[in-house]
Amino acid sequence: MTGKNVETDPELQRQAANKAKQVSDRISDALTTLQAAAEGRGTPWGNDQYGDRFANGENNNGYEAARRNLKKLTGNLSDHSSEHGDGQQKSSKLHGDSDRTSADGFR
What we know:
Elements: H1 10-40, H2 49-56, H3 63-105
């Protein structure tokens, strides 16, 4: 990147970090709401052969497996968004501190 400048704005980074945290919270809230709604319905597919096939599939790839996978993936997405926000928050602090130190050098 020789000859190219990179600019950062610590305040914009803080704002982006807060938005990433909000995304994480909304994903987590959506997952909690979905889980509560699904659990509140119990096992509406029944306990007969058709219900078992729906719930478990032929090779444990039915609804129950899909629900577990969705929960895991959604949880991971929420965690990743939260971690991303934490990283942005730390970066904004480091860049802000660096800007202040640099400005102090010119006083």
